[in-house]
Amino acid sequence: MKSHRSGSQDRISRRDFLNVFRLKDHGILFIDKGKCTGCSLCSIDCPTKALVVHLNSEKDSYQLLFRQEACDGCGVCEKSCPEHCLQFINRELEKDETRKQTQVIFEDDFSRCVQCGIRLFPRSMVRKLEAKIFTSKGSAWQLNLCPSCRTKAPFEKERVARSKT
Questions:
Q1: By three-state DSSP, how is residue 122 classified?
Q2: Which DSSP string corresponds to 10-65?
Q3: Which terminus has fewer CB within 10 Å in the chain: N or C?
């Protein structure tokens, strides 16, 4: 960006000024599916709503959709991802590609509560949390229960112990 000095004011050329606000027409969002946990922070932080979470009832799955026509290439999604698995790559669109496409860039099944069956989290998130939490034996955190069933679990164990005596 060239700045021109005119007296005491700094100015930039009109072309450079407009380039600051120009949308990135060419590019795709690359996601490392092995790192992604499906936390959806990228879709929450996306100012243009180019990233959207969709719950697919047919497959009972969690999907992260990328709407290319809404993306301005700002990079907020890349910065908000705690797993650092998103990357916006500038490239020319091929002849059969259009900016109007909505792509499923991440899809995963849900884990469910083992007591009541309610949907909890994407399975990849549970696997990642288990790997971090259960490094030592005997962790008391139960990722396979919903908050309601997790609250009831200690009382259930106590009730079962009392009924055996």
A1: strand
A2: EEE-HHHHHHHH----S-EEEE-TTT-----HHHHH-TT--EEEEEETTTTEEEEE
A3: C
Quote the tokens at residue 122. Answer: 């994407």
- pLDDT tens digits along 13-54: 776 665 555 445 556 788 999 999 999 999 999 999 999 999
* Residue type present at position 67: R
d(CA 114, CA 145): 6
CA R_g for the chain? 23
CATH of the domain at 116: 3.30.70.20
Question: What tens digit of pLDDT does each residue of 69-86 get?
Answer: 888 888 899 999 999 999
Which structural domain range is residue 43 located in?
3-164
For the whole prediction, is pTM greater than 0.85? no
64 CB neighbour count, 10 Å cutoff: 25
